[in-house]
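Progress against Task 2.4 (sequence-to-structure conversion) is shown through the following example record, which the project officer requested during the mid-term review.
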Amino acid sequence: METWVDTHCHLDAPEFDADRDEVVRRAVQAGVHLQVIPAVTPATFAPARDAAHSHGCAYALGTHPLFVHQVSDDAVAQLEGALRRWHDDPRLVAVGEIGLDHFVPELQDEASRALQERTYAAQLDVAQRFELPVILHVRRSADGLLKHLRRLREAGRPIAGGIAHAFNGSPQQAQAFIDLGFKLGFGGAMTFERALQIRRLAAELPPEAIVLETDAPDIPPHWLYQTAQARAQGARSRNEPAELPRIAQTLAELRGWTLDQTRAQTTRNALAALPRLAGLIP
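Structure tokens generated for the chain above:
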């Protein structure tokens, strides 16, 4: 495969409003010809879709767990309506970004956790009905995510696979996602030498289990990282999809692969995780 695929890039984010065209141009020059733009609330469904159509990308629709208190009670119904309206759009490749976040302190009270779980479970049900894979937010929440994926499988209604984004769980949790047909996303965090667990997983997981992502503008690789103090003083740490090949170099070194092998394998994996991408490869 002669292109890199950034399987998770928030190109529609306000951080790119001033220079989105230039960001995409730099990505293409770096060989990143395809990006997946996950929406995070119903208010971002149309912007994510517009960005995908304007810049030759793909998109996904869903409510992110960090925003469950900011969306209306009909957010899942809005997702279902959008999927019904745009289901035949070849650039719509998944439901996402959905999931659970058991890290952010403001969302760890009992009511917030329950709301996250209801929203996640309902969006999984919608994805299953529309036969779409899912892009999962996994932050200290792998077991909770797996519980609902298994629930659907045991009911004879399995999810059509997808990606566990920014994976940082245990090897056992990684294998559980793989067994359910998921790929695991690796990005900028992998480039930090102290990220021992992530780097160990990237080195040891089956080659067909790994996809690459930037999560731009977030999760900058080590060469872009700025401390909180530096950022407060105006230092820039915005991540971009053009960084993907350099992030991939870390994976190549960890695996003992060439960069060409890394590109071919991870692109093949991305197409397996999100089959509609195959029709968008330039």
